[in-house]
Amino acid sequence: MSDVHYLTAEGYQRLQQELEYLKTTARQQLAQRLRAAIQQGDLSENADYIAAKEEQGFIEGRIQELEQVLRNAVIIDYTEKKANEVSIGHVVTVQEGNFPPETYHLVGPKEADPLNGRISHESPIGKALLGKKVGDEVTAETPGGVIRLKILKIE
């Protein structure tokens, strides 16, 4: 099951849109750049050609990655989630000591964006929260050290 990618419906749609863009617009623009670079002559010292070929490798690699992710995606269904126990897809409000409460949306690694409150269920905090209930205190070993969080709310 390590190939499973948990995504929200919005995240799935966003990745589909990126894939469509890469397969159409990005490939077409790159093909035009490659044609123009080839027309310049000697390809061995042609910086435009070399850069375009590198970008082509990146684009094709990203296309393969997105296709694999979307093929193995499991959409997080919020309607089936019970808010009494933390699971992927929940929004969890926690508090560390006397610091102000923080809210995290527990998502799959492909959608994680910690600066915007979206943490992976595979992250230290995400792992610590999974399966816990309101009022539980959890300990997470983060790169910044061990932290204790109290779960205040699960949505």
Automatic annotation (TrEMBL):
It comes from the Bacteria. GO terms for molecular function: DNA binding; RNA polymerase binding; translation elongation factor activity. Keywords: DNA-binding, Elongation factor, Protein biosynthesis, Transcription, Transcription regulation. Residues 6-75 form the Transcription elongation factor GreA/GreB N-terminal domain. One of its GO terms (biological process) is DNA-templated transcription elongation. Residues 83-155 form the Transcription elongation factor GreA/GreB C-terminal domain. Gene3D superfamilies: Transcription elongation factor, GreA/GreB, C-terminal domain (3.10.50.30), Transcription elongation factor, GreA/GreB, N-terminal domain (1.10.287.180). HAMAP family: GreA_GreB. Necessary for efficient RNA polymerase transcription elongation past template-encoded arresting sites. The arresting sites in DNA have the property of trapping a certain fraction of elongating RNA polymerases that pass through, resulting in locked ternary complexes. Cleavage of the nascent transcript by cleavage factors such as GreA or GreB allows the resumption of elongation from the new 3'terminus. GreA releases sequences of 2 to 3 nucleotides. Belongs to the GreA/GreB family. This is Transcription elongation factor GreA. It comes from Thermanaerothrix daxensis.
